[in-house]
Amino acid sequence: MRFFIELSYMGTAYSGFQIQRNANSIQAEVEKALLIYCKKAIVLTGSSRTDAGVHAIQNFFHFDSDEFPCNSTENLQQPNLITQLSNCVYHLNAMLPRDIAIIRIFKVSDEAHCRFDASSREYHYGIYQRKNPFVERTAYYYPYRLDVEKMNKAAALIVGEKDFTSFSKKNTQVRHFQCTVKESEWSWQNDKLIYTVKANRFLRGMVKGLVGTMLRVGTQKISVKEFEKIIESRDCKQADFSVPSHGLFLVKVEYPPLLLLPYHDAHD
């Protein structure tokens, strides 16, 4: 049987979402907790990679097991399965560090894949311009005058299906650089300037590259037309990836409604 794990985390202390050699990750911590709880190793597959220091309000793993969350297949029937999974969430959260929280675990069809079946992913990048100790770990302090109107003109240029080679860091293993951006907009939310971008997929460093380069538009270091030329150049040396990771959040991973039907049937 296949299960999805929905979780959230603060990425400050981790090298990223997926497991890595010689560095701690979100995946490593969750697999460690599962090993203790299940008394056997469970290998996780992640839906969306996040880099070191990046946070997530929502992200997913999936894994396969014929015995999870108990050792008797007779007990893996509704509604008992719902109770078993709820208990599992409680115990795993007790084992996990304070900066990682499992929201829920639910059974899906055996063919469901948390990475390949995701229809879109949405990121937010937060900027604050007046000193505020309560947001310094989750947003980028940038106390310079910004022309948000021009930044939104630049943001609108990336909507649609385009080649985003210019906003992908080198040493990536993707087959192509085409992404379909569905939303791209800057807006003020309370005292923070938030960049919202939603797409079918993202390249390594893509959101930080977009944010850093659009900040150059906002401070009038480059024009909107020059930003457009950077897109067309397919040259990542022209983009600015220098913004810090702690302002970036993965906020939503969306799936086709029928994919998660077993979960919704059990709860609605």
Automatic annotation (TrEMBL):
EC number: 5.4.99.12
Keyword Flavoprotein: no
Domain Pseudouridine synthase I TruA alpha/beta: 154-256
GO biological process: tRNA pseudouridine synthesis
InterPro entries in UniProt: PsdUridine_synth_cat_dom_sf, PsdUridine_synth_TruA, PsdUridine_synth_TruA_a/b_dom, PsdUridine_synth_TruA_C, TruA/RsuA/RluB/E/F_N
Keyword ATP-binding (UniProt): no
Pfam families: PseudoU_synth_1
Top-level enzyme category: isomerase
Residues at which substrate binds: 123
Membrane spanning stretches: none
GO MF: RNA binding; tRNA pseudouridine(38-40) synthase activity
Gene3D superfamilies in the record: Pseudouridine synthase I, catalytic domain, C-terminal subdomain, Pseudouridine synthase I, catalytic domain, N-terminal subdomain
Family: Belongs to the tRNA pseudouridine synthase TruA family.
Subunit structure and binding partners: Homodimer.
NCBIfam families from the UniProt entry: hisT_truA (TIGR00071)
Function summary: Formation of pseudouridine at positions 38, 39 and 40 in the anticodon stem and loop of transfer RNAs.
Name this polypeptide is given: tRNA pseudouridine synthase A
